[in-house]
Amino acid sequence: LELPPRRFASHRASPSRRVDAAMARHAPDYAIMKRRAEEDRIAGHVAAARDKNKAMVMAHFEQRTGARIERRAADARVRKAKASLDADLDRRRRKLAQLLEDEQEQYEREVEATFETPEQRKQRLFARAKELRAKREAARKEEVARRNFERLRAGTDDLRKMDSDHLLLTATRERAAQLAEAEEKARRDREEDERMAIEWERLRQEKIAREEREAREAAERNREMVEALEGQVGLLKEMTAEERAKEAEDAARMLRAWSEEEKAEKAREAAKVEAERIERLKVRQDNEVTARQRALEAGKEFNEDMARLQATLDREAGEEAAEKAAAERRRLEAIEHRRRLEEQMAVEKEEQGELDKLYAEEQEREWRKREMQWEAEAAARERLMKDVDASRREHIAKVEEDARRAREEDKVRASRTKEEIAAEDARLAAEAARVKAKNLQHQKELFNQMRLREEAAAKEAQATYLEGRLMARAEEGYQKQLA
């Protein structure tokens, strides 16, 4: 506040202007400096709160912007992967369509190649007719040559005798060769039967040994599979128990951390409230001390002014004793000056009251701003705690869902393993049955071959016997003709 210009207007030439100057140097300047210092301190707090609020807004904005950028990047990657998959699918579809078209064209060409044209059919028939005509002509010529040769031989006695002798010699040699061949064949048959019997016995023993070995191997595989399955089930139980214990431990640790964070937050809130209360008390005490100091300084300055005024009056009264009119005038001026001084002091006191009132109003406004800021921070902390709680619950639910899915997958895997074991057992049983049926079939075939060989040997022996009888009869007829 500026001092009124009329403060020393009527006393410019007064002897007591030094007292007025001293009063003007002390109380108003001190009040202004104190007020400026208090305003600077309040402005510093306001700037700090504004910077803090700005930093908080920037942090929230960066978090939201980062999350939005990550979502957009993830969406872009998903779209890119989907476009790549769609392009690959279209390429494979085009390739399959081209393959199908090529196969269809190849099939059409092959179908067209299977049909004969009339010209091709005509040429094929002509070639077949020529071939048949050539075969008939060759057969006819051969038949004519054979009959001419037979007619020639039949018309010559020497040739007929030579033929008869040659036929007899040939029949005798062939008979001896047939008898030797029959004996050799019988011997080979006996050796083959003995060898087949030995081979069949060996195969039977190998089959028995193989069946026993396969049975042992199947039992061993089943035992190993059962042991592996039991180990997997035990390991699954241990892993499930460990996961449950770990989940319980994580949940307990999270609850403890949450409780500790809540306690720490309450402690910080209490410490902050206590610090603010102490700050308010300190400010109030500072204000009271400042008011008392101002009052003491004002009283001290008043006493000093009064002392200086009294000394000045006394000195002036001693110096101007002779001049009563001047003394009276100076006395009246002193009285007037005191009156004005008292008025000025009343004005300054009133102004100081207004300053205190303004300062109190400013402090009240600043306090309301702080309370609003604290309420906003408390609401933000509460929203943050709710978000953290929701995220923790979602994480716990996700962990439980993952554990449930893992258990279901383990159950499905165990069921699939059992089914595979059962299928493998069924396959082994079917393979064993197939091998057994194959061995039985092989045995039946061996028996059939032996039976067919015996029947063939019997038929051959009968044919040999009939041939011998016929040859004997022919020999008897020939001997009769010779006789």
TrEMBL record:
The keyword Transferase does not apply. Residues 82-142, 169-232, 261-288, 315-358 form a coiled coil. Belongs to the CFAP53 family. Residues 1-21 are annotated as: Disordered. It comes from the Eukaryota. The keyword Nucleotide-binding does not apply. GO terms for cellular component: cilium. InterPro entries: CFAP53/TCHP, TPH_dom. It is found in: Cell projection, Cilium. This is Cilia- and flagella-associated protein 53. Keywords: Cell projection, Cilium, Coiled coil. Residues 153-482 form the Trichohyalin-plectin-homology domain. It comes from Bicosoecida sp. CB-2014.
